[in-house]
Amino acid sequence: NKGSITSKTSNNEPITKETNIVNVYYYPETDPRKEVSEENITDLYLHNKEYTYSIDKAVLAYDEEVYYESYVFEDVLEDVLEVPSSIIIKNEAGIVVTDWFDVKTEGQRITATLKEPKKSIFYGHTYTYEITTKVKKDADLSKYKQGTQYIIPNEATFIVDNNVRFKTNKREVYILFLK
After folding, report:
1. What value does the mean pLDDT take over residues 169-175?
2. 72-106, pLDDT tens digit by residue?
3. How is residue 170 annotated by DSSP?
4. Among 19, 70, 131, 165, which residue's CB has the most CB atoms within a 10 Å radius?
């Protein structure tokens, strides 16, 4: 996009100057997709069985001028779930790239902050964020009880340039009540 500015000299004569060319980029983004390894579980609570949330997020191949300033994955687990000490992040080829991120856990909140968002190698790939968890021993699941099962929800977000830019679909784990 290019424009011009017109002003007048001290003699009241018009002067027109063209502005620099400004490129306007629009990239349609896709929302991340969250899946869970076990959706309907009869023995999860009773036997403390682990399950894994997998979040897939495609990162478009942007031009360098529009690379992110910051990129953060965030997931807050329900308080009845154990928070893992780490998560695994892989690209579409299955190569583990977790070391590209600063992974932290604070309470039930897990974050993975991309260390170098200006590196081109990050762009144009799909990443899978894997969080393995289980119900805490002796957890009070009463607020999750619906009929003959417990339903534990989960949703993750991606914060890009300090704004929540993407939210995953909400996934629920259904635990059948066998008592």
Report:
1. 53
2. 999 999 999 888 867 999 999 999 999 999 999 99
3. P
4. 131
The identity of residue 28, as a single letter, is P
Rounded to the nearest 5 percent, the helix, strand and coil shares of the chain are 10, 45, 45
Residue bearing the bigger pLDDT, 70 or 11: 70
β-sheet bridge partners, residue 56: 33, 128
| 133/37 Cα distance (integer angstroms) | 11
How far apart CA 25 and CA 39 sit, in angstroms, is 40
Q: Under a CB-based contact definition with an 8 Å cutoff, are residues 51 and 43 in contact?
A: no
Residues in Cβ contact with 115 at an 8 Å cutoff, skipping those fewer than 6 apart = 100, 101, 102
pLDDT in tens, 14-59: 767 676 665 544 445 665 666 666 554 555 555 567 888 888 888 8
Q: What is the Cα–Cα distance from 171 to 33, expressed in whole angstroms?
A: 10
DSSP calls for 82-115: PPPS--EEEETT--B-GGGEEEEEETTEEEEEES
Q: 132 and 55 in contact (C-beta within 8 Å)?
A: no
